[in-house]
């Protein structure tokens, strides 16, 4: 589910139309095979309950966690690390009782900043018993997608990933 930010033409902010379309896709896929898991990925936004298609249509819940100081998206009062963003978003979906994935994780900034944020993120994972997977968004983001006319660079080199995350 994409927020109604203008980033994508399909993100229109109509919850009932979204639920109807999601269910239609799930039903169509199920006529072809029973071997598909369906991930409802509301990004973890505040109004996600309005977009929930129902337990019969969702196998896993996906969250987006983007740690970007220059994106002008942090709450008043300061820094929001990847770990604190996950804490907030996980709390919004935990009561569904379904497996959770971070379907998009990205940290912008210097290698030192990425290391600090990813270390904190990794140390926090024990708090989330429903969390089953994390996918890192290893790319430069879409120009024009973020406020403040900034284009985040989420990329991390394989050697950096190995030394920072995998080796621990």
From TrEMBL:
Domain of life according to the entry: Bacteria
GH26 domain ranges (all copies): 1-168
InterPro entries xref list: GH, GH26_dom
Molecular functions per Gene Ontology: hydrolase activity, hydrolyzing O-glycosyl compounds
Keywords associated with the record: Glycosidase, Hydrolase
Family: Belongs to the glycosyl hydrolase 26 family.
Descriptive protein name: GH26 domain-containing protein
């Amino acid at each position: 589910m994409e927020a109604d930010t203008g980033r994508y033409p399909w993100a229109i902010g109509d919850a009932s139309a979204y639920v109807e379309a999601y269910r239609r896709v799930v039903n169509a896929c199920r006529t072809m095979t029973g071997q598909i898991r369906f991930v409802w990925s509301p990004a973890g936004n505040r109004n996600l309950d309005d977009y929930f298609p129902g337990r019969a249509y969702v196998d896993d819940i996906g969250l987006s966690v983007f740690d970007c100081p220059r994106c002008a998206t942090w709450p008043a009062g300061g820094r929001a690390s990847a770990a604190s963003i996950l804490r907030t978003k996980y709390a919004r979906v935990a009561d569904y009782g379904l497996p959770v994935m971070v379907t998009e994780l990205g940290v912008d900034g210097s290698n030192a900043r990425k290391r600090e944020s990813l270390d904190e993120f990794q140390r926090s994972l024990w708090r989330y018993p429903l969390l089953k997977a994390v996918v890192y968004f290893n790319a430069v983001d879409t120009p024009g997608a973020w406020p403040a006319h900034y284009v985040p660079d989420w990329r991390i080199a394989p050697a950096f990933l190995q030394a920072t995350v995998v080796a621990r």
